[in-house]
């Protein structure tokens, strides 16, 4: 099976986790695009979606799925999103699609994060994938120096401006031994909008696409 077929597999499987009659939180990325295309088939059974990016909003609306303002939604039973890496505790690195801040907001609104990913995303320890950090442009020098002091090598992602008007630093070489501690540490630095470690908002369930089918991990 190709990686695209594995993404399609988990995109389909995720539909079973959508709560009928409720609003669903929708992430960003190629795996989520598969999910959105499946969600379109049951759009009459949901109350709409809260989206984590302009790209997902456009895809949802193209399917005729109502996209609601996050501030008008009080209850979000489920958030469905992909990941760049996920460990065996449900901690993730996210932000490969530069949508990490809105993804973390919608994840925090939701009762349950269901991660959908192909099997290559499952890792023992987070950190092989360059860690995205969304930063207010005037702080990119300051934050880069602090990341270097932690042992990382940050690079500004070329040509990318986030939906919030900020830049992304991609950081290689960081050892993420304690995801929760590193998330709260980096998030506290002035100028950092969001770090792409999802520990506080970790997944409760992961639907992993494998050549043998969907493997479900509960955390
Ligand atoms: O965090 C993300 C976007 O900001 C995505 O969930 C992550 O990059 C995985 O994307 P894909 O499903 O295309 O592999």
Automatic annotation (TrEMBL):
The active site is at 103 (proton acceptor). It catalyses: aldehydo-D-ribose 5-phosphate = D-ribulose 5-phosphate. GO terms for molecular function: ribose-5-phosphate isomerase activity. One of its GO terms (biological process) is pentose-phosphate shunt, non-oxidative branch. The keyword Magnesium does not apply. Substrate binds at residues 28-31, 81-84, 94-97, 121. Its EC number is 5.3.1.6. Keywords: Isomerase. It is an enzyme of class 5 (isomerase). Catalyzes the reversible conversion of ribose-5-phosphate to ribulose 5-phosphate. Belongs to the ribose 5-phosphate isomerase family. PANTHER family: RIBOSE-5-PHOSPHATE ISOMERASE. HAMAP family: Rib_5P_isom_A. This is Ribose-5-phosphate isomerase A. The lineage of its organism: Bacteria, Pseudomonadati, Pseudomonadota, Betaproteobacteria, Burkholderiales.
